[in-house]
Amino acid sequence: MDCAKVGHLILQLRKENGLTQRQVAEQLNISNKTISKWECGLGCPDVSLWEELSAVLGADILKLLQGELKPNFPDAGKIDLIQFYVCPNCGNIITSTGKTAVSCCGRRLHPLAADLNDEEHQASVQVMDNNYYITFNHEMSKEHYILFAAYVYGDRMLLTRFYPEQDPSFYLPLMRKGGNLYFYCTKHGLQKYPFTKERVKNL
Fold first, then answer.
1. Rounded Cα–Cα distance for residues 137 and 168 (Å)
2. Which of 67, 202, 95 is nearest to 158 (CA)?
3. Which ranges constitute the DSSP H helices of 61-192?
4. Residues 33-55: pLDDT tens digits?
5. Domain-wise residue ranges, the chain
6. Of 3.30.300.30, 3.40.50.2000, 1.10.260.40, 1.20.1050.10, which CATH number belongs to 3-66?
7. Each residue of 20-30: pLDDT tens digit?
8. Segment 28-36 long-range contacts (CB within 8 Å, at least 24 positions apart)
9. What is the pTM of this model?
10. CATH class of domain segment(s) 115-201
């Protein structure tokens, strides 16, 4: 571990958060001389302090250990490049529109690859009261169910969360542009349903 790099990053993050050495030290229950020592590169934090230090400075532990923050390229703003993440432990749903490092429950998550929906995962679309009414003929048990459906179009996304034993159906407002309907099956992963006016008319 390069204590000089780590100390420089601690100094940078402390100032970004508007904290004094004393304030950081008080939150970690150590002396402010210890913080000064770290920032001068004369030592590194004890392993028992890394988790609290990352929380105080608002930084990822791994980045602190490496002593550097590598920023991503600016988000291109193309929501059709959206990526979905699902935590296998708690079921948390996370989305991103650019390259990012995502973790949940202590596990690194990877973006889900979407398959074009098969016959087992067909969506039914009807026009009702100036809305699209979307339904799925799908099992909704605790062991096998649709976790969410997300409609991505233009510059926005509409996400609906489902739960076991719930009816997997929802409404979408009628829109001029087509988009993509994504839905996540807890057994078969992420499915993608191209949602165009022409396709809806043919249903």
1. 8
2. 95
3. 61-66
4. 998 998 898 888 888 887 888 88
5. 3-66, 79-109, 115-201
6. 1.10.260.40
7. 999 989 988 99
8. 28/52, 28/53, 28/56, 35/10
9. 0.67
10. mainly beta
